[in-house]
TrEMBL record:
GO molecular function, one term: transferase activity
InterPro entries named among the record's database cross-references: Aminoglycoside_PTrfase (IPR002575), CcrZ_PhaseVar_Mediator (IPR052077), Kinase-like_dom_sf (IPR011009)
Stretches assigned to the Aminoglycoside phosphotransferase domain: 19-230
Highest taxon above the source species: Bacteria
Protein name: Phosphotransferase
Origin species: Oceanobacillus bengalensis
Pfam families listed in its UniProt record: APH (PF01636)
Taxonomy of the source species: Bacteria, Bacillati, Bacillota, Bacilli, Bacillales
Annotated TM spans: none
Keyword Ion transport appears in the UniProt entry: no
Keywords (A to Z) from UniProt: Transferase
Amino acid sequence: MLEWLERALGDGWKLTPAGGLTGEAFIAEKENKRLFLKRNSSPFLAVLSAEGIVPKLVWTRRMENGDVITAQEWLEGRELKPNDMKDQKVADLLHKIHHSTELLDMLMRLGINPLTSDEIFASIKQTLIDMNLIHKYEAVRISLEYLDILLPKTRNKKLVVCHSDLNHNNLLMSNDGSLFLIDWDNATIADPASDYGLILKGYIPREDWNGWLEKYGVEEEENLLERMYWYLLLNALQYLCWHLGRKEPIKAMERLRDIEELNEQVTSII
């Protein structure tokens, strides 16, 4: 990997890993210039850059082995802290993403098609069956029942571009006050409630949910709370399967506790 990057950059650049799960991101430094490099980023990155949602895309290069290397501008700044997620800028950026026809058109041209909640439900149910998790964990069985009960509430909604991995580590504030949302590997076309549900559950006290939704600009929507919890349960089940598949039992048990907590909360709304 490093050899290919060094060829792409030319002489004089110092490469250091940028962290992350994939190990395919690097920081390149030369004199006073810094770039963020990643292998095989989605072509979606170009329109995200044009929309000002991610740091500026500097260049894209296809390597001899077929890999595509992207270089983005390195901005001095910081990741958001959990308490920053309440800020108006976060709500405004998410609103911009969800209402962008350019992002939606590009994602569909890349072959990302909207999935109905019925298709998603069938998929997670089959995965849980294949992994024998429904009989193994009572919380999983209950959560699947809740997904089935709430499924009608999720149908026939407007689907938009969603980031699908909203956490404070993926939001960067540059020193000039600009806000960027990075790590778009899980981007999909879905109910926007699947995105802002992650922010509300993860960062906003329950009594302040309505206030944050007003900042975002959400209009009165039928079954909004039920839809958010449906996607939160789905997200927790998907991560449980993911961690078990990676043989990460401690992380998997954390997700199981999340599922138990969500089950208790859903009980109060159905």
